[in-house]
Amino acid sequence: MSKDRIRVAVIIGSVRKGRFGPTVARWFVEQARQRNGVEVDVIDLAEAPLPVTITDEPAPGVAAVLGDLSPRVEQADAFVVVTPEYNHGYPASLKCMIDWHFTQWQAKPVGFVSYGGLAGGVRAVEQLRQVFAELHAMTIRDMVSFHGAWQQFDSDGRPTHPEGCNAAAKVMLDQLVWWAEALRDARYRRPYRA
């Protein structure tokens, strides 16, 4: 089982006009795809709009979005959330997407790449750690954070000083893959029950 590729879903949390998330996500996806045995699926929440009203009988348009999105979340072995910090927290679009799912998160690792101003999105990640703990997911200790993110990337969307962020991504990915393999093997041997 552990010899199979690890499926990592990279979730772009921001849906705001003029958002910077896709730039940060493109850099991270490039880092992840350099690793042997890792398969990346990018989930851009701007392309998967979900309403805040959660129901057992979603409208046809919502059901269609969930029909595409939910299997991708289910099939992921691990997640990396790319999040900005809005008003000392994470985006509502991200919370909405998280809350539309439950069992899909269980016994899987979640890593974080955050960005923002002086705080670099760290406060958003601290809140997300609490949310994912409630969903029985395992958050990765080390993360990547871009403080003053708009000055950290050049006009082509590449980090201006890649050594630090590339090293941080490697550490986080090392931990994420370790946990993804361990938890996938454990789920295979004994399905997780919350």
CATH architectural label: 3-Layer(aba) Sandwich
Strand content: 15-25%
Assign the structural class, choosing from mainly alpha, mainly beta, alpha/beta, alpha+beta, or little secondary structure. alpha/beta
Q: Spell out the helices and strands N to C.
A: EHEHEHEHEEHH
CATH class placement: Alpha Beta
Please count the beta strands (DSSP E, at least 2 residues each): 6
Any idea what the radius of gyration is? 16 Å
* Total of domains: 1
| Approximate helicity band | 40-55%
General shape = globular
Sheet having the most strands: 6 strands, parallel
How far apart the termini lie comes to 23 Å
Mean pLDDT: 95
* Number of DSSP helical runs: 6
Structural features:
194 residues, alpha/beta, Rossmann fold, 6-stranded parallel beta sheet, globular
